[in-house]
Every structure is written in C-alpha cells, then in structure tokens.
Amino acid sequence: MAALLRSGKNVVSTSIVSLLHPASAAPAIVRMLEDACTEGGTSCFTSGIDPGFANDLIPLTLTGMCARVDAVRIAEILNYDTYDQPTVLFDTMGFGRPMDHVPLLLLPGVLGVAWGPAVRLLADGLGVTVERIEESFERLPAPESFSIAAGPIEAGTVAALRFEVVGIVDGAPRIVIEHITRLRDDLAPDWPDPPAGGGYRIDVTGSPSFHLELSMTGADGDHNAGGLLATAMRLANAIPAVCAAPPGLLTPFDLPLLTGRGLMR
C-alpha cells in the first residue's frame, strides 16, 4: 500500500481495518503511510459497510437530529447461508467447528481490533472519548446436520454466533456494535430477528430516540450479494472525492457526502 501511495496512486480499501480510525492505529504504520501520501501527493480511504458506512455515516446522521444522545447501538443481523466463503466462515469465524474450538475471530482482543476502530470513529463524531473497548460473544450449535453454500455443517458444531464490541464512555457502555449471524433462519430463536431479508438495525437512545432498520438485496434477491456489492460501491463511489482530497489518511469526516451522483441513467 505504501508503494502505491508513494508512486502517485490514490487508494481505497476495505482491508487494514485499523485505518478506519488512524488516530488509534499503530503509529509506525500510520507514519509510514502518511509519509508515502506526502511523497506521492496521494490519499488513502478505508471503509466499507461494516466496519464502515453502517457504523459511522448512518448513526451519526441520526444523532444530528437529537437534543441529547445517551447511547448508540448498531447491529448486523444476517443469515450467512449463501455466503460462499469457506475460509472466512469456517476458519476465521469458526462455523462448522466444534463448540470448544476458538477460531481466529474469537481469540482475545481480535474483535476489538476488527471493530474497535469503528467504535472510536463513531465516538469522534459524537465528541466523546472511548476509555476502553470490551468484547463478548455467544455461540449455539446446529440441532442437526445441514448444508450451506460454503459447505456442510454437522450436528453439534457452531451454527450461530453473536458478538458485541462495546465502547465504554464515562464508565458506561455507550457505543455498541453487535453482530448476530445465523446459518439458518430458525436457529437462535431467542436472539433478535433480522430486518426484512437481513441487514442492519440502528438504535440511537436519547431525545428523541431513533430506530432504523436497513435491509439490502442484490439483483438476484440475495442479501449477502447485496451487502458485498454495497461494501465495494461505498469505496468505488468515493474515488473522485478521495482523488480530490489533500494528501493523507482519510476518514468520512474528511470527505463530502458520497452519493450516487451519475448513477441514475
């Protein structure tokens, strides 16, 4: 990435999620990339849908209509049965693995590394400081064997995952990013149900309070396809603004409102 920036190429990316919030990223990496931006006269913007758009622009826009904000919760509630990425589902997230297996995503601190920057970025937009990040998770087994696009899920292995990444502000859990991921709609019936087709639920508690449900579908009607396309287009549509921005590592606060200008035809 540094080589690209140094050579005069602007970068938009969904990877290195710590760069969603450069202020809390590893100083050595930030310094290296900022130096590359300065040398190449380029900019770098890291975003997506989650972490990304669903965690920053949408909730912050809602808070702009509040007289007081007490807490913000963003939940992704999706069935990943059509998500044909075995490495992500089985190795990283631990689906289809024994209940006592601890996958990469659930190792201590990893959830905070992955979603902590989004929590801190949201806190910046609210003008508050996150004292620490807390994380927790819960899993449920498959009641019987079944198959998803990524492969077989054996009875008794992990088939539903719920986790929270919590920003503690003034000693209280004020900013929460939650994921509720099922591999079948009927699993974990006591957990919150998804928006229509699956998507995001955003709750701003304050005066007034707001409750927003957002679902997405691809051209084939699939919510996972819609989410993947939205992730990519958040960045593709940012390219003109990123190229026009001053050199450096960018956050949404450094860019104008990104719209679908030119896409209605």
Please name the defining characteristics of this protein.
265 residues; alpha/beta; 2 domains; six-stranded mixed β-sheet; 7 helices
Structural class: alpha/beta
Radius of gyration: 19 Å
Identify low-pLDDT runs: none
**Count of extended strands:** 11
Q: N- to C-terminal separation?
A: 34 Å
- Average per-residue pLDDT, rounded, comes to 97
Total DSSP helices: 7
* Shape type: globular
What strand order characterises the main sheet?
A: 4-7-8-3-9-10
Please trace the helix and strand order, writing H or E for each element: HEHEHEHHEEEEEEEHHE
Largest sheet: 6 strands, mixed
Overall number of structural domains: 2
Overview of the structural elements:
With 265 residues, this protein is of the alpha/beta class. It folds into 2 domains: 63 residues, no CATH class; 167 residues, no CATH class. It has 7 helices and 11 strands. A 6-stranded mixed sheet has the order 4-7-8-3-9-10. A 3-stranded parallel sheet has the order 1-2-11. A hairpin with a 2-residue loop joins strand 5 and strand 6. The mean pLDDT is 97.
What is the topology?
Layout: H1 2-6, E1 11-13, H2 27-40, E2 43-46, H3 57-63, E3 68-79, H4 86-92, H5 110-126, E4 132-141, E5 146-148, E6 151-153, E7 158-169, E8 172-182, E9 199-207, E10 210-215, H6 223-236, H7 239-244, E11 248-250
Parallel strand pairs: 1-2, 2-11, 3-8
Antiparallel strand pairs: 3-9, 4-7, 5-6, 7-8, 9-10
